[in-house]
Amino acid sequence: MTADLSLIRSSFKVVEPHGTQVTAYFYDHLFANNPGVRPLFAPHIDEQRDRLWAALGALVANLENTDTLTDMLQNLGRRHAGYGALPEHYPAVGASLIATLRHYAGDAWTPAVEESWTAVYGVISSTMIAAADAAAK
User: Fold this and answer.
1) 2: nearest Cα among 97, 116, 121, 122
2) Nearest CA to 8 among 123, 90, 101, 122?
């Protein structure tokens, strides 16, 4: 599975005007479908929603800047490990991210867009998990 970065950018442009509604939907979806992860988050997650939105924007902005993107993801992986995130949490997060993007992209969401986002999330999660594992050793 490969990612078409132009599809990532164009689909994010469709989602972007919805702002932090996107991250509110994401967390609602994540907690409804995976209630066991809720304790990993603060009771009020407004600030976390803003951080997630900023991280998504930075991710899309740096898709072709591999060094910056890798550093960002490694830092996120180490931080998330400190919050108690485990490798088995990442598939749930990925499923909620894809569901959220699909919801807000509407007609712009195609099988190719989903394949691209799924591939990108695979890189995101594997990079974050590897960094968390390395920090734990």
Assistant:
1) 116
2) 101
Tokens 């990612």: give the residue.
3
Task: Please say whether the beta carbons of 94 and 118 come within 8 A.
Answer: yes
The CATH number assigned to the domain holding 132 equals 1.10.490.10
Q: Which residue has the tokens 């919050």?
A: 83
Number of structural domains the chain divides into? 1
Spatial separation of the C-alpha atoms in residues 45 and 11, rounded to whole Å: 25
Q: Which two tokens stand for residue 96?
A: 């909620």
Q: State both tokens at 53.
A: 């939105």
Q: If we measure between CA atoms, which residue out of 87, 96, 99 comes closest to residue 125?
A: 87
pLDDT in tens, the chain (137 residues): 689 999 999 999 999 999 999 999 999 999 999 999 999 888 889 999 999 999 999 999 999 999 999 999 999 999 999 888 999 999 999 999 999 999 999 999 999 999 999 999 999 999 999 999 998 88
**pTM here?**
0.94
* Structural domain harbouring 20: 5-136
CB 61 within 8 A of CB 87: no
